[in-house]
Write a structure and sequence with these properties.
The protein is of the alpha/beta class and 234 residues long. 41% of the residues lie in helices and 19% in strands.
């Protein structure tokens, strides 16, 4: 299995069909062997039924018993993946699937390749509202102050990892919500793996599932607890 694509999905009935059609159309012409794992994070709409309407294989539908968070959904999907490389991809396809080739161009440079909206060659075609962009920059500043990540953008949902490394890192992942990306980067560096950022295209989705206040506070709490755990291990 050359590539596994893992897509977390929560209440994505309206968007997921188009996303899966685009992904399948692209991969069928570009990748010799692949699987797509859709992980439903406790949706109450028709997300599961829609995902199951696609042929299996290559679409495999996994489910969490309850809404647990993006990190938890990705952990389940990655641990059940079989690919030599694993791509994490958001259900809204904010970064087009064609940018997989952009990440693949860096395979020799690192085991964890982060799609980034903040480095050279990135192209944000539709920006978030200003307050969200400021919140994102503040969050990245906090990560640097806490010495958790030196990257400019840990939160872009488009990431490519060597398969064995992905399964090793996600087995140790503890953060279940949106701050899982930070722990993923920390785990990779702790284990001696190379982390690189690569600019990608990105378009903000107005239907974002991220709540600007609640989820931001949860993320802050998660990274503070992560920092405390790391200090206590020293």
């Amino acid at each position: 299995m050359q590539l596994s694509v893992v897509i977390p999905a929560y209440e994505e009935e309206a968007r997921l069909g188009g996303t899966l059609r685009q992904i399948l159309s692209y991969l069928e012409n570009q990748v010799a062997s692949f699987e797509v794992l859709v992980v439903d994070d406790g949706s109450t709409d028709g997300t599961v039924e829609l995902a199951r309407s696609f042929p299996n294989p290559p679409i495999d539908v996994l489910q969490l018993d309850r809404n647990s968070g993006k990190g938890a959904a990705l952990k389940k999907g990655v641990l059940e993946s079989r690919g030599e490389w694993v791509l994490l991809c958001d259900a809204d396809l904010s970064t087009p699937i064609e940018d997989l080739e952009t990440l693949r161009s860096r395979e020799a440079d690192g085991e964890l390749i982060l799609g980034s909206r903040a480095v050279a060659h990135s192209n944000v075609t539709r920006h978030q509202p200003l307050y969200r962009e400021l919140m994102g920059k503040t969050f990245n500043g906090i990560l640097r102050v806490l010495a958790l990540a030196e990257e400019q953008d840990t939160q872009c949902g488009f990431k490519l990892m060597r398969g064995d490394v992905a399964r090793e890192l996600f087995a140790d992942l503890t953060i279940e919500r949106f701050a899982f990306d930070v722990e993923l980067v920390c785990l990779a560096r702790d284990k001696g793996y190379r982390v690189v950022e690569q600019g990608v295209r990105w378009e903000n989705s107005p239907e974002s599932r991220v709540h600007p206040v609640r989820d931001s506070l949860n993320m802050l709490g998660d990274v503070l607890r992560l920092r405390l755990r790391r200090l206590m291990r020293r």
